[in-house]
Design goal:
Elements: H1 2-18, E1 25-29, E2 32-38, E3 43-44, E4 51-57, E5 71-77, E6 80-84, E7 87-88, E8 95-97, E9 109-116, E10 119-126, E11 135-136, H2 149-175
Parallel strand pairs: 3-11
Antiparallel strand pairs: 1-2, 2-4, 4-8, 5-6, 5-9, 7-8, 9-10
Length: about 180
């Protein structure tokens, strides 16, 4: 009996720890459920990613098709904003993505506006709420470590200074 319990616990742990983690925010908007998050979580600076969302009728679970025609998604970071193009995912009705390469770490806000049929949509999703990933610095996953830029700049400046000194010496020798 202990053997079966042990096997069951091992199998349960494999299922729990190998299951994918989805960090997305879901909410009901009218007759629809909108689930929103990054395509790849956690999101990193300088790494191709972008938001994804699924839209389904929350009563029938039917996917909402053609939402890219009536909805607009805008990303905001601080005072800057950029409209993004929603694209339907092939062979996955109700699933939409937009392309984005985050350039700074921190919280990103997405504003989804437009209509779904007669329903007016004006929803804000922000990573600051903790339902999906903030954008992390790429240094968290870069390997091997990059050279320190300040050391490289100092090295280049020393080379420039040496070349200037040589140039001045040549000018002085040519003038005498």
């Amino acid at each position: 009996m202990k053997k079966w319990i042990t096997l069951f616990l091992v199998a349960l742990m494999l299922v729990v720890f190998s299951a994918p983690v989805f960090a997305h925010e879901g909410r009901i908007v009218g007759n629809y459920e909108i689930v929103f998050g990054w395509r790849v979580e956690p999101a990193y600076v300088g790494v191709f990613n972008g938001p994804e969302l699924t839209i389904t009728n929350h009563e029938t679970e039917a996917p909402r098709r053609d939402a890219e025609e009536t909805l607009m998604l805008t990303v905001q970071f601080g005072p800057q904003s950029l409209p993004l193009r929603l694209e339907p995912v092939a062979n996955e009705p109700g699933h939409y993505t937009a392309d984005l390469i985050p350039t700074l770490p921190g919280d990103y806000t997405f504003i989804l506006t437009g209509t779904l049929g007669d329903l007016v949509v004006n929803e804000t999703f922000t990573s600051a709420d903790g339902e999906f990933s903030v954008v992390e610095p790429a240094t968290d996953i870069l390997f091997p470590a990059l050279e320190d830029d300040s050391a490289r700049i100092d090295e280049l400046q020393a080379q420039i200074d040496a070349l200037r000194a040589e140039l001045e010496a040549l000018r002085a020798a040519a003038g005498s």
